[in-house]
């Protein structure tokens, strides 16, 4: 599983994506642009005690 947000790492935008992200943030009240770019099927670390 790869892509943005993999392994719990921060997901960031490229400078050219910032304008569209700002427009969507103003319209929806959250960063819908970046949210749409993060895969739902991604690996994240398991921090539960063993």
Mean pLDDT: 88
Head-to-tail CA distance between termini: 23 Å
- List the secondary-structure elements in sequence, H or E: HH
Shape: elongated
The number of helical runs is 2
By DSSP, the count of extended strands is 0
The Rg value, from CA coordinates, equals: 13 Å
Instruction: Tell me roughly what share of residues is in helical segments.
Output: 25-40%
The description of the largest β-sheet is: none
The stretches of 5 or more residues where confidence is low (pLDDT under 50) are none
Could you tell me the strand content as a percent range?
Answer: under 5%
Strand-pairing-aware structural class: mainly alpha
Walk me through the structure:
- Residues 1-20 are annotated as: Disordered.
- This protein is mostly helical and 50 residues long.
- It has a domain at 6-37.
- Helix content is 34%, strand content 0%.
- It has 2 helices and no strands.
- The protein has helices at residues 18-28, 32-37.
- It is elongated, with a radius of gyration of 13 Å.
